[in-house]
Design goal:
By secondary structure, this protein is an alpha+beta fold. The chain folds into 2 domains: 1-27 and 164-206; 31-162, Immunoglobulin-like. Helices cover 31% and strands 30% of the residues. The strands form 2 sheets. The chain has a 5-stranded mixed beta sheet, with no helix packed on it. Strands 1, 3, 4 and 7 form a 4-stranded antiparallel beta sheet that branches. A hairpin with a 6-residue loop joins strand 8 (121-129) and strand 9 (136-145). Helix 1 runs antiparallel to helix 2 (165-205).
Length: 206
């Protein structure tokens, strides 16, 4: 397969993956009605009862976001209560915040080393709101560890409050496609250099 064909195939595959990601990252299921709340943090966890995708390191500052909607439209000026429980069901955090014009309420906390002395451990966070006397809630379980090194040693954190996830994905797509096109070009340059070197040696022999 030619380099251009490979690049085209990988680009098409990435577009397919983009569509799947957009569907999976939608915090409110299409067709949902009434009041809804979605709890997540700066590392992810969007969706109902979806856990945080990466372990939380002791000492890290965690930012919790709660997104409140009514018929998929953001709801402003409603109270949201946050609670974070350790594995023994003891509350580390109880806080209240008000949603902004975009429907987001937020709070933050830090897990200290003396908060719990057995790692790794599974903690849980919840967000609850009761607009119009209708109570809705969401939870985000997360693992707490003493240290964490992602695969490859690189960590990417994107604050999602008010962010357009489609824009984020398109930016990642552009980077990946650029890499797909750039890597073969680099190897082509090396191959030409090797051929030129080989020809130079062959001419030198005669």
């Amino acid at each position: 397969m030619k380099v251009a064909d490979k690049a085209l195939a990988l680009t098409f595959l990435f577009f397919v993956l983009e569509g799947c990601m957009l569907l999976s990252l939608s915090p409110i299921a299409e067709g949902s009605s009434g009041f809804q709340i979605d709890l997540f943090c700066q590392y992810g966890g969007r969706g109902h009862d979806v856990p945080c995708p990466i372990p939380i390191v002791v000492g890290s500052r965690i930012i919790l976001y709660a997104y409140v909607t009514y018929d998929q439209e953001p709801v402003q000026s409603v109270l949201v209560s946050f609670q974070v429980d350790n594995p023994q069901k003891v509350a580390l955090l109880i806080a209240v915040s008000v949603t902004n014009a975009s429907g987001y309420a937020t709070t933050n906390f830090t897990i200290s080393e003396h908060s719990y002395n057995a790692f790794p451990s599974l903690w849980n966070s919840t967000a609850t709101t009761s607009p119009a006397q209708e109570t809705v809630s969401d939870s985000m379980p997360f693992e707490v560890v003493l240290s964490y090194k992602p695969v490859g040693g690189i960590s990417l954190s994107i604050p999602l409050e008010g962010a357009n996830i489609g824009v984020v994905i398109v930016c990642v797509e552009i980077i990946v496609v650029a890499l797909v096109l750039a890597v073969p070009a680099r190897f082509r340059k090396r191959a030409r250099w090797a051929r030129n070197s080989s020809n130079a040696i062959s001419v030198g022999k005669y």
